[in-house]
Write a structure and sequence with these properties.
It is built from eight helices and four strands, in the order E-H-E-H-H-H-H-E-H-E-H-H. With 197 residues, the chain is an alpha/beta fold. It has two domains: 125 residues, no CATH class; 65 residues, no CATH class. The two termini are 13 Å apart.
């Protein structure tokens, strides 16, 4: 399994194709390696309720705490940086490059300031949000799954355990109805479930 994080669909497809090709190049079947991107899911009875819930959850985050968490994750001390400058303007060369790239990737579309990135990181750890009704979320997940973007997902809910519970109660049955999520387990061991493909 490869746990990963890309934001744009085209980036997901490029990563998926590259990893599957590398697996095949070393003599393994591409399906022997599952690629699972992280996603946060916020559900509501209607799209507007889900959007309001997502906005409310985001408003609870202290930006400076998020910046401190970003410092911890990247190994780069962001204290003392101008919190209202965009990330592109900051000197961010030191630290864990992979995590830094994820943060930068998650901030490029909006040209986030360090304050805004801190707030977003504190809320979602830069995992892309799927916000909507259970049907809407299932539609997006099915599209990514069927578009050679991934083999499944790692759920990273902002609220636990309620985020997992609501997903299992509302989205999983919808995915099962579509035939893209198991309805029973294939065996007793975790490895058995990974081989279900």
């Amino acid at each position: 399994m490869v746990f990963t994080l890309q934001h744009a669909k085209s980036d997901m497809q490029a990563f998926y194709a590259a990893v599957k090709a590398r697996v095949e190049q070393v003599g393994r079947k591409p399906e022997s390696c599952s690629i699972l991107p992280g996603r946060d899911v916020v559900l509501g009875e209607t799209e507007s309720i889900a959007q309001e819930k997502a906005a409310y959850l985001g408003s609870l985050v202290d930006a400076e705490f998020g910046v401190a968490e970003m410092s911890n994750a990247t190994g780069s001390n962001l204290a003392g940086q101008d919190i209202d400058r965009t990330l592109a303007e900051l000197d961010l060369r030191e630290g864990a490059r992979g995590m830094l790239d994820v943060i930068l990737q998650g901030s490029r579309p909006d040209a986030l300031t360090l304050r805004e990135a801190g707030r977003r990181y504190g809320y979602t750890r830069m995992n892309p949000l799927l916000v909507g009704t259970p049907t809407m979320v299932a539609d997006r997940m099915q599209d990514l799954f069927e578009s050679a973007c991934c083999d499944g997902f790692i759920l990273c809910p902002s609220l636990t355990p309620s985020g997992y519970e609501s997903f299992c109660k509302a989205v999983v049955p919808e995915l099962q109805r579509r035939g893209i999520f198991r309805t029973e387990y294939a065996g007793r061991m975790f490895a058995d479930h990974l081989r279900e493909q």
